[in-house]
Specification:
Elements: E1 4-9, H1 13-24, E2 29-35, H2 38-48, E3 52-55, H3 64-74, E4 79-84, H4 89-97, E5 102-105, H5 110-121, E6 126-127, H6 129-141, H7 148-152, H8 156-166, H9 171-178, H10 182-195, H11 201-210
Parallel strand pairs: 1-2, 1-3, 3-4, 4-5, 5-6
Length: 217
Amino acid sequence: MAPISVLIADDHEIIRFGISTYLSSSEDIEIVGEASTGEECLQLFQETHPDICILDIGMPDKDGIETAKEIRACEQETKILILSMHIDKEILRRALSADINGYLLKNTEKRDLLHGIRAIVKGQQVFSDPISEMIKESFLTKTPDRNNHYQQDITEREREILQLIVDGLTSKEIAEKLYISPRTVDTHRANLMEKLQLNNIAELVRYSIRHQLVNIE
């Protein structure tokens, strides 16, 4: 299996060096580029087409969120992980609007960063605990913005799959748990997004939490 290709963007050289050195020690990770600015990151992205981009927020030229939006506009399949020291509701709102796949704080344990990268590449979303709590608090207190009849069309099986998606399971894991095929899982997921008028898994997860369609432990 090919290693996970990673592009790192952070304006602090010592942080880039630390992340790169640690991740490179894993056989399933390949660092394909390091950038110190948003513009440099975008240039390297076009050259390397990595599996995942690890972005700091505070960078010259373009910040990490602006960079994430441009990456997402170019490529839907590339995974985006924000790695930042910031814990701020407005920054988080902007980051989520960029359709990121994860948001970890820079005080994250090294092994959790590595596990997070692997999970994101498998299709899961990864957030540090303080970020997860902020997301839950924000979405659970926000006034619903869609009509209830969208939710009433959801079947019991779709709700079951929705819960497992929010729990972070991949299509394969859901299929094994429910004794159905991964293709059936993907079909249910597509139906859910169509019924709720959503565009991607990140929106589906956020909508489900906001409208309390799933249980949150």
